[in-house]
Design brief:
Elements: H1 2-6, E1 25-27, E2 32-34, H2 36-42, E3 54-55, E4 75-79, E5 84-87, H3 88-92, E6 101-103, H4 104-144
Antiparallel strand pairs: 1-2, 1-3, 4-5, 4-6
Length: 145
């Protein structure tokens, strides 16, 4: 989460020989980022890869919609009890009867908020921990002397 917020560096082509060019296209099927020339080279016209849809370059390739591995349907809800994503069929099955189920978007927002607060707490405590480490190292040096 923290890395996705602070990404400011250019995404480079993963197939260029040095010096690498900046990536202009991505491919979710290949899970790679390409410059224009490498994209053409690795997705030649008339091949199966030519059917791959170019996307903007990224460092994390995720499918367009998450699919339920059991029912092969798009997941639309989150089961708070099981802490997993569920599709419409999973939701009505007995396995989740009586469970707290919410839409994916609201679950995402709640979990993101919780993660943001936890990250802020950790970062605010970082200076205190570093100070304590320095004090302990100083105590070790003093004890050794």
């Amino acid at each position: 989460y923290r890395q996705t917020i602070n990404i400011s560096a250019a995404i480079m082509c993963q197939f260029c020989k040095p010096p690498q060019l900046e990536a202009t296209k991505g491919c979710t099927e290949c899970k790679s980022s390409f410059c224009n020339e490498c994209f053409k080279l690795y997705h030649p016209w008339g091949t199966q890869k030519a059917q791959h849809e170019p996307t903007p370059p990224t460092l994390t390739f995720r499918p367009k919609g998450l699919m339920c591995p059991e029912h092969k349907e798009e997941v639309t809800h989150y089961c708070k009890t099981c802490q997993r994503l569920v599709c419409q069929l999973c939701r009505v099955r007995r396995a989740h009867t009586g469970h707290k189920i919410t839409p994916v978007l609201s679950a995402y927002q709640a979990l993101r908020e919780k993660l943001t607060k936890s990250l802020a707490y950790i970062l605010s405590s970082q200076d205190t921990v570093q100070t304590q480490i320095a004090e302990l190292e100083e105590t070790v040096k003093h004890t050794e002397v």
